[in-house]
Fold these 3 entries.
Entry 1:
Amino acid sequence: MYSNKFGRLMLGLYSRKQSSVCGVVQSCAGRSSFSWTAVCKQRTLWLQGGGCLTRQQHAVPSPISARSASHTTVDPDEVRRFQSLAGKWWDEQGEFAALHAMNDLRVPFIRDNLLSVHTARHPGKPLAGLRILDVGCGGGLITEPLGRLGADVLGIDPVEDSIGTAKLHSSFDPDLQDRISYQACTLEELSSEEEGGSEEQGVAQFDAIVASEVVEHLADLETFAFCCSHVLKPGGSLFITTINKTNLSYAFGIVVAEQLLRIVPSGTHDWEKFISPEELERLLESNGFSVQSVEGMLYNPVSGAWSWTNSTAINYALHAVKVREDPQPDQTKESSSHADHSAADTHS
Amino acid sequence: MHKLTKATLTLNGLGRCYNAEKHLSAVKIISRGLVSAERGGDSSKSEVYDVVISGGGMVGSAMACSLGMDPNLEGKKILLLEAGNKKVMDKVPDMYSTRVSSISPGSATLLSGIGVWENITKMRCKPYKKMQVWDACSDALITFDKENLEEEMAYIVENDVVVAALTKQLGTLSDNVQVKYRSKVVKYTWPMPHEAAESVPWVQVKLANGESVQTKLLIGADGPNSMVRRELGIPTVKWNYDQSAVVAVLHLSEPTENNVAWQRFLPTGPIAMLPLSDTESSLVWSTSHRLAEELLDLDEESFVDAINSAFWSNENQSELIETAGSVFRSALSAIMPSAGSPRQLPPSVAGIGPKTRVMFPLGMGHASEYIRHRVALIGDAAHRVHPLAGQGANLGFGDVACLTQLLSQAAFNGKDLGAIQHLLEYETDRQRHNLPMMAAIDLMKRLYSTNAAPAVLLRTFGLQATNMLPALKEQIMAFAGK
């Protein structure tokens, strides 16, 4: 048993239970990925360039920016990468083990922040009556817990196979069948669907949006923020968990997590696409959101568990609220563009 | 139907089998790791429950009540399966039943939390304030009591009363707890691991009447010969004690403020007298199979004589032991002059209740794993102890309290109730508590099963010393009272 533990340490599989031999082999298999040198080069250039300001100007596609100026949030490379992992979502000791463990933090984070606004009327189902959109739901890892807590959840993901896995996994549970639904589409598609759709309901129909471990895989964050604002009710909540863009996050989030310990499959993350909480806050506030809280999260590879921490240097969770369109004169956080149909054209 | 080797489960079984049973070879373990799964078929017709509890005894019913009353689990579907009949007790029978349990304050707290303790006190229960345990082979004795005899130490309650009280409370919870009586389980089908996505992920339970149910979490509360545990192939450390317990209801010679529990360790096994009322007590006499049979064959008068002499006679004491005992006592009283207690004698017995003499075999059992994927064991299914410490039922109630709390928290976090993370936590918590207790009980049993001089001297000194250390006694009572 001792040698087993040591062996796992060397292979970089930190899980609480012994995983099967086949799982080890699969995670070591090569995946399409950035090479170390390419990422290092990009990173030094970014740091030299003084970083964040260049990101805002999407009109100038700089060679070092990993995000395109497209109006779609989807990056085809990312889609491909996740397509190959589509069947592995629900293996709690597999590639997505860290995400399963993250539920211990993010579900209470979402639940408690929603409950502070919408008081629970139903003891066994605290989120009953709320409509939640799970962007980039993958296999439904966070969709299902939210559904169990009583919310009506729609999970969307551009990777069709993941949606297939998610649908299959939730199909056995009669409890979830009524409350969870999945759609293989992108956020823009959904947002424009709403536009063309029924007039009486209006476009804003979700009480909350969850985009967990998603923004670091997106091609265009402006569009993302805009679409979120579009489909969210006024006063609705936006929950984002993602990774900060710092030296520390490079060291731990990429080098250690991907190359050394294989907590996530190699090539999952591109450091260029990480975003700092300050920048994210700026982005959201320019799209009609008011950031309520930012909390740091820390992963302990030995215990395989996450915990809240003061430092947002690596992982963090963010809660923002869509500003209500109140006719009150003193709005502390005014935003230039409210969620309007016409606002869509102002982007360029 | 096809079988698949579950590499994960096998490795788990091997890895966690630190208590491997002596006669279980590795081959058997691997073969027990095989899991059979049935594809789809008529599974869509059977209802899916959130929790199914197999076994409606004291611990199983308490689990059902506890889950049914938890606010975070409201709206969840819970099913209790009991092979026997519904036990209703509109009026408490005049005669006491022979099977009783000592309910610790911790268990009483759990029961009152689920609204059952009230029912019990309305029916019948006897609190006792003091416990005297002494040796037949020497003078050593130890008494446990709460400060100034104000609070109760524990309660003696008939098992039937507990079950009836639980049944009554379950009747009020029919919204989310369903109970099926006279349902015997014939087959369990265990779910496949996550990788095999197409098959039904729930535990399937097939009943004798042909019905089938599915559940996200199966709780096995089906007693020391648990079918759930057997079907899972969980390695169990167990041995028979070559002892049987003779139980009876005793009529005392004269009414007394019967609030002391008495236990004397004879070389053949401990004899205990537990108070039921001012005039009656319950007898639990653990002794060898042969002696137990003899006791059952005796006529009433001889049986009563045997009991009285077991408690009162000093024939087992040799001179050496007596001298040694008194030397110890004087030495100890030199160190701690105020401690120690005088020996009291239990009340004498005049007769026994009609048709109440029964015997049952005793053994020890401990499942090396309390949990599997979507399954948890509680109560005697997980651990079986000698009655000498009165802990069997209390360990079970402790399991109920722990598991309920963990499931409640898991539900509040939106987790799948059968997920292994919180089940592992339950196992760790309870094993940490149960194993020392079981080891202590087994040690006591072995230590007191002999009248060889070294063992007697050791235990005499140990008992006397412990008796003189109130701090240590308080620790023991606290541990046993959980």
Entry 2:
Amino acid sequence: MAKDGAAKLSKNLLRMKFMQRGLDAELKKQLDEEEKRIISDEHWFLDLPELKAKENHIIEERSCVPCEDLVYGRMSFRGFNPEVEKLMLLMNTHKEEEEDEEEDDVSRMETDITDEEMARRYESLVESMRKKFAKKRNRSTVTKSEEDVNCNVVGDQPKKVFLKPQD
Amino acid sequence: MDTIHACFKEKIGEVLLPGDVFSFRLSESGDGSIKTEKIICGPGLRRNGEEVQVCKSGILRHKQPNMYWIDSQQRRYVPAKGESVIGIVTAKSGDIFKVDVGGSEQASLSYLAFEGATKRNRPNVQVGDLVYGQFTIANKDMEPELVCIDSCGRANGMGVFGADGLLFKVSLGLVRRLLAPQSEIIKDLEKIFPFELVVGMNGRVWVKAKTVQQTLIVTNLLETCENMTSQQRQTLFKRVAEGSL
């Protein structure tokens, strides 16, 4: 087996990854395509004409709970079981909310801080972080631009670079 | 749109018998509006191709915008998905409990379907316990499955309940009347004395009050409510309220 020439190696063996490392890209592509063809030929398919699913306008509903808007099944009266009374309120208002929510927009969430305060806090936060990470030489420019309300950046003095001696 | 609803409208509030058919031709050309109208057939109505057939005798009811159903009387419960029922645990086998819900088959309840249950932390459920749960699977081809947990993982009052109290069976029509949004029976009962009530859609009702006698009074009142008009009921309740207080 080991003594046979390359011609005697089987097809499957030649298709293995380690045998293909020496091949060209083209040969590899050809081999891949052949493999795909073989696999897709083996796939089964139905030789039927295309059937379209009919859209049904009639929906069947087996339960009578949505029909009659039945309430939650556990009930307690006059404080006999306070937990169940809490549950009653929860489940029955939950059902009412579902009906109302369809009309309202859920646009604003309730917040502890107003939006303006948040924007102000964020502004100062950005400045302080910028100052912290600015290089020592740039810190003065940062503070200057901060004080100016319109943030007009006045042209800086030319940056001090190392001057090579002309000697 | 008008043709569909018109077929139904003439019969709303009338008694229909099984075999009555509502058919409407939807093959009209170019009517985009008719195509998008959906009708929801509730219990008692069944779709048969393009027609709607009545399969239970009763009165046709309507709810806006497009829901129709037959209001009928029966005592035998057929499990339906999404309904909350009271079940009695009959057996524990492996990972599931077998629960009797009054249907043709016993429902299965997985032990993981309780709030806070894990493989190590098993729920404390014994044979003979009462459970309040919802159906996740309930059709004529498969065994019904119950869960005591909602889709978010919270119990919402479901699970084992009721150390004391009394369980009894009523007709399904009375259950629907008790659970209606502004139920008069409940409003009248409230006035008598404090008590706790669990109503399952399978016709089972569990009552608990402070003393055994009060529990029995409530039970008897509920059982007789079925066959009384509201006048008779109110007079009866008044007599009881005066008698007991």
Entry 3:
Amino acid sequence: MFRNQYDTDVTTWSPAGRLFQVEYAMEAVKQGSATIGLRSKTHVVLGCVNKANSELSSHQKKIFKVDDHIGVAIAGLTADGRVLSRYMRNECINYNFTYESPLPVGRLVVQLADKAQVCTQRSWKRPYGVGLLVAGLDESGAHLYYNCPSGNYFEYQAFAIGSRSQAAKTYLERRFENFADSSRDDLVKDALMAIRETLQGETLKSSICTVAVVGVGEPFHILDQETVQQMINAFEIVGEQEGPAAEPDAAAGQEAAAEQGGSTDEGVAPMDI
Amino acid sequence: MNFTASKQPENCLLGPESDSQRTLYPYVTGTSVVALKYKDGILMAADMGGSYGSTLRYKSVERMKPIGKHSLLGASGEISDFQEILKYLDELILYDNMWDDGNSLGPKEVHNYLTRVMYNRRNKFNPLWNSLVLGGVKKGEKYLGTVSMIGVNFEDNHVATGFGNHLARPILRQEWHENLSFEDGVKLLEKCMRVLLYRDRSAINKLQIAKITEEGMTISPPYSLKTYWEFSAFENPTQGAVGSW
């Protein structure tokens, strides 16, 4: 973006009171592929766009299970994300060993944020270049948090990060008031539709996206490709009819990946239900 | 020159550690704690005695204390180690409260924390010389567990330490049932404590009963049990005993 004389290291303030290195780290998050999260009172769904570099390679893992009740989706430098996931898993395991109880998400998120903050105040370190959407269950219900490289964290009803996330955010902003009471399947459907928004015209297929769910009575798990594709298909049908979110598919653990096969630009307006 | 009395045998493998102070034997001890689950929560009873060997030296020792909002801890064994444990737990609860989020450590978490502490101390050959009873209620779930000085831990509907295991548990196994009323629970505990009073030399006739429910913890003022010594079996107790007088 801008070349400044105050951006050489993270421990230098600019005259305007900014830490440019931290802001550049947040840029790295914006360059990563889109990741979205949304929650109801009892479930949280994470989804991301997973494009492989070439047809020959597999795609990068962007969603990690941290514990039965916590999962995280990342955007940005996936290597940094992997390291932070390992830290989170460690913290969860240690807490569980001492207290035989799951680590409350809220506390894990604060620990993560404190860890990120350290990197903004040491001259020999750099901020983590990854944004994390942390989904988890607590005593107080389902939670979705966003941890950024600055060391800040926020709780959200729904959020999207990464490239072209604004399109998803717009979609989520229109619908978020209904999320709290959504059923699990509706939530997954909304996630898939939000992912579709970031693809801007491209066909939504289960091979280019990943969806994961955690909820009351449902440990965190990533939905398999087949299930996702079935949900996408269900939505295509529903999308054409402009009907409400009914899933004709028999399979119970379907993810709602709302994509339609046809070109998005032509004629099919975003669902305003 | 080292004046501390460390009784290390010559073939001791502890090496440089052998000079440090480790718990070798307890000095001021409390006797049994008995506890059971009842309809609304947990009832726990312990007398107020602190023995110094065979002398019944201290008679106002509170051996049951509340921990946080949801738990109650009773201890038998070395009283100073119990006080040390209370300090550890105080710090634990303090840090838990400092998070100031909607979460709090319940009885299960405290019990497991204590198990880790006791077991790790035992592994260093420097045990906290206590048998602990941890009971509580959180979100309607009743919890009652115990940890010993060597780290043995388990949960049950009724637990006891020390002599209580031998004298009170059999009574509880016969007479405990789910959803005891408060009055029945107290009567049952008093029955156990009375037997202990008759038969345990380190028991004194001054006890407290503590109750913990979802609402909170209350502990009764000290009181004493009625005893009856006119049983005919108590007259000439050694009549039929071989080799006694």
